[in-house]
Each structure stands twice: as structure tokens, then as C-alpha cells.
Amino acid sequence: MEIGEYIQARKSQLNFYKDIELYTKAEGKGFVLYKKVGITLNDMRIDQARHPKILHIRQMDKLKGIQEAQKGFNKQLRADVKSKNPAKVKETLVTVVEETLAEPRSGSLEGVSETVNILVSDYSKESDVVKNLIDMSYKDYSTVLHSINVMAFVLGYASYMKYSQEEAKIIGICALLHDVGKTKIRQEILIAPRKLTNEEFDPSLQNLISMCQTFGTEGVAE
Known about the structure:
The chain is mainly α. The chain has nine helices and four strands. The chain has two domains: 3-61, no CATH class; 63-216, no CATH class. This is HD-GYP domain-containing protein. Residues 121-222 form the HD-GYP domain.
């Protein structure tokens, strides 16, 4: 296979890969299979200090890797909710959103949907998870944390208005992803302390439209 068929695996996702092959790059040999499908790095009993610092996956497995990681992080989120530890809940939420926004595409929404589903569950309501997230939301201003904060406030409102779990889930997903278009806009434009020029504004608008079309045509609108 050509080098272009491989990309570096995200370290935060490595331990969740089970149905994805991992490769290492060997001098003079190119990319060599390191982990086969059906097992994880933990199954191989290899700790972080022993496996290669850089591992690769095939480009075609990129979306599947995000989805596997989301499942793992959502499993952790359920445990955090049950532990009634709002700081851990928020920490895991940050990771889920960061992983999703690193490659924002329609297929990665499946994991985010489950994330919000966990937060609107009966158990979450009983343990005041959303209320505690709101209480922690006043000093965080990054895009990821802002998105989580907005979702927390929206879910709090949904609870106050006695929305059904399905209704709360839908508006929670919308709140969590309301700034997803920003991931396609250059950082210097996002933080520019002035009015944008037409040359800067038009491409930014097209990126937002493109993201809406991607999500809207593959099931999000439903």
C-alpha cells in the first residue's frame, strides 16, 4: 500500500481500537501490521511505555476509529454519571467533544447522540448531573467548553419545561453542535478583533453552509 493510505492514530483513541488494525512504520519495510482486528492494546498486555510512540491506521478506518473511541468514552461517561462526580463528567464530555470536532462529519454524530442520551437519562436527572454542569459553566470560554456549557443550559431548560427525553435529546445535540462550523474556519479569523473583510467572510460562510449540508442530508434533520 502507498504511504498516503495511512494516517497517524490519535493517542487518545489508541486503547479503544478493537475492530481496527494498527500499523507501525519500520525503516526499510514501510508500514507493518502491529495489532490485528479483534483485540485491543490492553488485550496484548502492552502498556503505554512499551508500544511504539507513533502508530498508524488506514485512512479508510478514520471514521470507524472515531466511532470506536466515542463508544469507549461514552462508557466512561456512564460510569462518571453513576459516580456523581461532576468534574469527571465534564472532563469526559470535553474529551468526547474534542474527538468529535477533530473530525466533524455526519458519521461521528452517532456517538454524540448517545452522549446526550446518557445526560438526559432518568438516572442523570436523579443525580443532578446537568444542574452540576451548569454550576461549573461560568468560567469556561473555549469552543469545546462553550459547546458543553450551552448544552448544559439547554438541558436544564428542557428539564424545567418538562420536555420528553427524546425532545431533550434533540435540542441537546443541537446545542452541543451549534458551533461545529467553526472547526472549518481559520483560527486567526475566529479571533480577529475587527470586522471581517469580504475575502475573509465569504469563505467562512461557505464552510458553515457546507457543514449544515453535510449534517442535514444524512439524517440529522430527522
